[in-house]
Cytidine deaminase
Amino acid sequence: MSESANHETIDEQIIDALVKVRGRAYVPYSDHPVGALLISESGQQFVGANVEVAHYKGLCAEASAIAAMISAGERQLREVYVIGPGEHLCTPCGDCRQRLREFATPDTIIRVVDAQGQLLKRYSMDQLLPDSFGPENLGRGSAMHQG
Ligand SMILES: [Zn+2]
């Protein structure tokens, strides 16, 4: 796979799912809908939208999708897609980078697409969160640092 992202095309089914889940976002305060789609190690897809609440401690789309993946019994991320409402790079926030890292492997790819689903940028987990703190720092096994 190429490091220069722009000539990589995203699967139509994935774009459709991203646009659909972004459309379900509950964002009355920010008006900034975001959708996330995760592909787990088994190849299953999980989607999530951001969910705001009146006290402003809302849930990000990535966190929402991770919750769906964990609830279904999956533990490892193969691919991550994030779609925002505009042409700007809607990258995962700091909190979500740490959440994704918990379930990422060295091969996990994170792709951020524009509002139409065109690829803007792709990252490895290490690029998205360099020198990260993870389960192995607490003496736990982690898919990021095997062997
Ligand atoms: Zn976030």
Observations:
- Residues 124 and 130 are 10 Å apart (CA to CA).
- The chain has one domain: 5-145.
- The first helix runs from residue 12 to 23.
